[in-house]
Amino acid sequence: MTGSNPRAPMHQPDGRSLSQRRAPKGLVTVTGGAGFLGSHLVERLLQSGCSVHVVDDLSSGSLENLDAVRGDPRLSITVGSVAEPAIAARAADAAMVFHLAGMVGVQRLAQRPLDVMRGNLLCTEAMLDAAARSGAPILIASSSEVYGDARAPFDETDPVQPGSTDNLRGGYACAKAMGEWLAHAHARQGTLRVVVARLFNVVGPRQSGAYGMVLPRFVAQAREGNPITVFGDGTQTRCFAAADEVALALCDLLATPDAIGGTFNVGSDREVRVLELAHLVKRIARSSSEVTLIPHDRVFPKGFVDPQRRVPRLDRLRACIGWAPSRPIEAIVEELCAAPQSAAVQRALAARALS
């Protein structure tokens, strides 16, 4: 591994987290709650004693992600897009809102850039408008992509650098950054209580590798005995954070008054080279798969840029909630290799293989 966490977390996520000490009263909405991270957040909120309203159009999520909690009477589900003002208004009729709805995945962006850019911006705009009218505090999920080709490690005060308009990846970054600017404009011009969370490579059970998410793709390939395909030379680094820890961090942020109006990097700050990750997955899965390098131009359109480093500074997050996600990548990979592959993930991988 290329590095280690330079600071031990001030607080480990356990039963005495901020979110559990300050569990919200009333209904909590999670847009995108049937998605990978959204479903982990829903489970966390229900464990904290909340009632939860999930709103999801199921374009990338699946109700199977909520199988563990579908029978809970405190859970309600609306299937629809929050880009529609009426649905957004119902979603914002809550004690607080976590807005995670959006389209992610570098391969989906390469294949359907217009849908990805429009979908992310329109949904965020509609939810901010609705929350401003209802008065509900809202956390919006942004992305590390807003940093573009800036030099890592990334600080929240760094300028966004999405790059040339010829680069489709920059369009996704701009859509996410515009959502952030709209959030802060609402807060300054009105009374919206908003938190922006820039997520860095969240991984865990129920995540699909069908749209370019590297770790679940590696695990699926290793399990099936197929080549573990590394795009580029594998020297690029990423920092991976466990989904359940990230879900808890999001809860703690929206439950902390000092977080309101702020932008926070949320993830792990431990770097790992992608090639090292492939070999780690192979070893832990006890796989016979070969690790294969594939040039970027065989996978992505011309001009599609894969950043060399994606590393957050987490000082602001630690100062606000007292801790940051820190589960080692080895433990995350062990969990993923031991977990059964969900039917939803199997279908997504099969569909990807046929496309």
How would you summarize what this structure contains?
With 355 residues, this protein is α/β, with parallel strands linked by helices.
Any chance you could write out the topology, listing elements then pairs?
Layout: H1 18-21, E1 27-31, H2 36-47, E2 51-56, E3 75-79, H3 85-91, E4 96-99, H4 106-111, H5 113-134, E5 138-143, H6 168-189, E6 194-199, E7 202-203, H7 214-224, E8 228-231, E9 237-239, E10 241-242, H8 243-254, E11 263-266, E12 271-273, H9 274-285, E13 291-294, H10 315-321, H11 329-338, H12 343-354
Parallel strand pairs: 1-2, 1-4, 2-3, 4-5, 5-6, 6-11, 7-10, 8-13
Antiparallel strand pairs: 9-12
Helix pairs in contact: 2-8, 3-5, 5-6, 7-9, 9-11
Provide a descriptive summary of the structure in words.
The radius of gyration is 19 Å and the shape is globular. The protein contains 12 helices and 13 strands. With 355 residues, the protein is of the alpha/beta class. It has a domain at 18-201 and 242-269 and 308-325: NAD(P)-binding Rossmann-like Domain (Rossmann fold).
Keywords:
two-stranded parallel sheet; 355 residues; alpha/beta; 15% strand; 13 strands
**CATH architectural arrangement of the domain at 18-201 and 242-269 and 308-325:** 3-Layer(aba) Sandwich
Given helix and strand content, the structural type is alpha/beta
Mean pLDDT: 87
Number of strands: 13
Query: Biggest sheet, in brief?
Result: 7 strands, parallel
The span between the termini is 34 Å
Beta-strand level of the residues, as a percent range? 15-25%
N-to-C series of helices and strands: HEHEEHEHHEHEEHEEEHEEHEHHH
Tell the overall outline.
Answer: globular
| Uncertain spans | 3-11, 347-355
Give the proportion of residues in helices: 25-40%
The fourth-level CATH homologous superfamily of the domain at 18-201 and 242-269 and 308-325 is NAD(P)-binding Rossmann-like Domain
* Tally of DSSP helical segments: 12
What is the CA-atom radius of gyration, in angstroms? 19 Å
CATH class of the domain at 18-201 and 242-269 and 308-325: Alpha Beta
What is the strand arrangement across the widest sheet? 3-2-1-4-5-6-11
CATH fold category name of the domain at 18-201 and 242-269 and 308-325 = Rossmann fold
